[in-house]
Amino acid sequence: MFNHLKPAKAGGDPSVFATATRVIDYSDLKAFSRLENGDKIVDGKIVDADGNPVEVRDEEGRPVSYRIGSEPDAHG
User: Fold this and answer.
1) How confident is the model over 17-64, as pLDDT tens digits?
2) 0.70 exceeded by the pTM?
């Protein structure tokens, strides 16, 4: 993002500043603490370092169908 910013001209409005164009909710960061070294996202799914899928479960322990980058499936 910052490589697209241009320096302000002298006398420009000093109250104008760059902000993030998207954000991640802080509560969602909890999930990142469960990732292990070598985990990555492939085609919207989390896979481990060996390429095996990492299962995602809901609060009741049921497997969840998901695709990172899309809205959660309400019907799981």
Assistant:
1) 667 788 888 877 887 888 999 999 999 999 999 999 999 998 899 999
2) no
Q: Tell me how far apart the alpha carbons of residues 69 and 26 are, in angstroms, rounded to a whole number.
A: 17
- Buried b / exposed e over 30-54, threshold 16 CB at 10 Å, is eeeeeeeeeeeeeeeebeeeeeeee
| The two structure tokens encoding residue 59 | 């609060």
- Count CA within 13 A, CB hemisphere, residue 65: 4
| Interatomic CA distance for residues 13 and 66, integer angstroms | 44
Contacts (Cβ under 8 Å, ≥6 apart) of 63: 55, 56, 57
